[in-house]
Task: inverse folding
């Protein structure tokens, strides 16, 4: 008969550094393979972060964008060429505020599904792509839950409650 070791059951050995650490130092795997029956990552959090940083820095920003762009755009049912066409049709500016998003981006700032700093805006109910927005405008539309009436009320609120500055 096997003796149950409570202390051992609360710890796991990192496959990378070999250190024995508590399970809280490992990532939980949502999609586990047959070889990962425990449901926990084989590498501890520290080693996993180091490995991810090494992998990310192995590519130039251009290589990363070229590698990830097709996957990101296909999520919305458009190709990178479709996004570039939309970008040209909008004159390279946000469809709402009209500003060039790339000018606002800080160096190294990540923007998901981006064409020169503009993100793909889509209807959450139908999935139809509406255009390219800068991050602040995309967040604002999302916070309003794509509800045009709420957005109109918000604009009215701002217009009626903002004091007029005397010059």
Result:
């Amino acid at each position: 008969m096997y003796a149950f070791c409570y202390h051992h059951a609360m710890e796991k050995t990192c496959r990378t550094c070999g250190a024995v650490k508590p399970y809280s130092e490992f990532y939980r795997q949502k999609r586990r393979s047959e070889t990962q029956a425990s449901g926990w990552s084989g590498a501890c959090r520290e080693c996993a972060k180091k490995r991810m940083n090494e992998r990310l820095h192995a590519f130039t920003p251009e290589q990363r964008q070229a590698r990830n762009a097709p996957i990101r755009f296909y999520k919305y049912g458009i190709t990178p060429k479709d996004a570039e066409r939309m970008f040209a049709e909008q004159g390279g500016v946000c469809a709402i505020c009209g500003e060039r998003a790339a000018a606002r981006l800080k160096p190294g700032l990540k923007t998901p599904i981006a064409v020169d700093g503009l993100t793909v805006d889509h209807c959450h109910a139908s999935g139809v792509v509406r255009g390219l927005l800068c991050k602040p405008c995309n967040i604002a539309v999302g916070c309003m839950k794509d509800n045009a009436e709420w957005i109109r009320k918000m604009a009215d609120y701002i217009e009626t409650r903002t004091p007029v500055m005397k010059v």
In short: The mean pLDDT is 80. The two ends are 89 Å apart (CA to CA). The CA atoms of residues 35 and 42 lie 10 Å apart. The first helix runs from residue 6 to 9.
